[in-house]
Amino acid sequence: MTVETTGSTNGRPQGVDEVHILWISEGLSCDGDTVSVTAASQPAIEDVVTGLVPGLPTVHLYNKVLSPTLGGEEYLAPFRAAARGELAPFVLVIEGSIPNENINGDGYWTSFGNDERTGEPLTLNWWIDRLAPRAWGVVAIGTCATYGGIHAMAGNPTGAMGLADYLGWDFRSTAGLPIVNVPGCPVQPDNFMETLTWLLYHAAGAAPPPPLDELLRPQWIFGRTVHEGCDRAGYYEQADFAKDYNSPKCQVKIGCWGPVVNCNVPKRGWMGGIGGCPNVGGICIGCTMPGFPDKFMPFMDMPPGASVSSLAAKPYGAFIRRMRGITNGTVNKEPKWRHNKEALTSGYDPRYRP
Ligand code: SF4
Ligand code: SF4
User: Fold this and answer.
1) Residues 31, 164 share a domain
2) CA quadruple 60, 217, 16, 125: dihedral, nearest 10
3) Which of 296, 330, 348 is the last residue of a domain?
4) Residue ranges of the Cytochrome-c3 hydrogenase C-terminal domain (predicted)?
5) Are residues 189 and 244 in the same domain?
6) Residue with CA at minimum distance from ligand 1 atom 7
7) What local confidence, expressed as pLDDT, does residue 66 receive?
8) Stretch 147-158: mean pLDDT, rounded?
9) Which of 226, 227, 250 for mutating ligand 2's site (highest number of atoms within 8 Å of CB)?
10) Which of 31, 34, 122, 263 lies deepest, with the highest CB count within 10 Å?
11) Domain range holding 256?
């Protein structure tokens, strides 16, 4: 089924009334991103699909965990229709990393449904090859789909990669959009829903395309480091470092990579604004990053650059901490003129009294 575009109004680009979201989680993954998105609240995925978010097109979501179908051919029908060019416009969401099926020997690495004629499994790669060129927009959800993630570690046998490595970093959808990467292991639920909602407003003709950085991440989400939003950053500045995981102090010496990792989770929290790895005692292991996990291992060891930066911060931080301690003691005392004696000692000058 092809949905007609609506007319242009107020000089805005043409929009569409309906959008299908074809979400395939048969990449190499744990389905954690699908599970994570069920916790979104800004907006909630159920609000988007039930039309409670004003101004969005009607959304038809096809995701195996969130599907009302019983599975099988009923579930596969919209995917097959889209592959035949009979369903548009659609946003293709890929979850999980893409294996290299050129090196699968006599088998296959991952599949989604079977070929109707031969009964042979259809690989994820088969679907991507047919759906991506017809997609209005393409979104990679989670670090596996964006950059390869855990499955693409050194020594893996599958040749796993991210979607842009597979389709090409210069890929463009039928709407002229690049792949939109929303990394995270798993993805922070509101990061994904906010990005998807922006895309849907763009589809409706009500917003420009979402701004992305050179790694195709939403700029407004991944433009700052974990450290810049961390509750513990004040301890770092004062060179007050945790020695174990029971401490509320800065965790850089016990494995936190926050100063060099692009992620907004300490600011945003995980669910309903609560949590956010270092805020609640978890070191940042760089799970949103293209170099994850290899470049951050072994986890819980001090990052190589941290010994230099924490050493440099030490003399300044120790001095500043002492000075602040003195000032803190001063500002914790009330001024001495607040008393109930017979004389006014506030320093009030009565010169202008009549
Ligand atoms: S815990 Fe990590 S992110 Fe937070 S201040 Fe320390 S180094 Fe930075
Ligand atoms: S703070 Fe670090 S470990 Fe936590 S979600 Fe962000 S990148 Fe991943």
Assistant:
1) yes
2) -60
3) 296
4) 222-299
5) no
6) 252
7) 87
8) 97
9) 226
10) 263
11) 227-296
Asked if residue 124 is part of any domain, the answer here is yes
Name which residue leads in pLDDT, 353 or 189.
189
> Final residue of a domain: which of 249, 272, 296?
296
| 302 in Cβ contact with 308 (< 8 Å) | no
* 216 CA from centroid of ligand 1 (Å): 25
Determine the residue of 261, 289, 297 to mutate for testing ligand 2's pocket, defined as the one with the most ligand atoms within 8 A of the Cβ atom.
Answer: 261
Task: Average the pLDDT over 229-236 and give the result.
Answer: 95
Query: Helix (H, G, I), strand (E, B), or coil: what is residue 244?
Result: coil
Q: 261: Cβ below 6 Å to ligand 2? A: yes
Atom 2 of ligand 2, nearest CA residue: 284
Say how many Å lie between the CA of residue 65 and the centre of ligand 2.
25
The answer for residues whose C-beta is within 8 angstroms of residue 230's C-beta and 6 or more apart is 236, 258, 266, 278, 279
**Judgement on whether residues 193 and 246 belong to the same structural domain of the protein:** no
pLDDT at 126 over 50: yes
Given the CA of residue 185, which atom of ligand 2 is nearest to it? 8
Higher pLDDT, 315 or 269: 269
Do residues 214 and 247 both lie within one domain? no
One DSSP character per residue, 286-342 reads: -TTSTTTTGGGPSTTSPPHHHHHHHHHHHHHHHHHHHHHHHHHHHHTS--TT-S-SS
For residue 237, the CA-to-ligand 1 centroid distance in Å is 10
Q: Is 254 in the pocket of ligand 1 (CB under 6 A)?
A: no
User: What does the mean pLDDT of the chain come to?
Assistant: 93
> pLDDT of 28-77, one tens digit each?
999 999 999 999 999 999 999 999 999 999 999 999 988 989 889 999 99
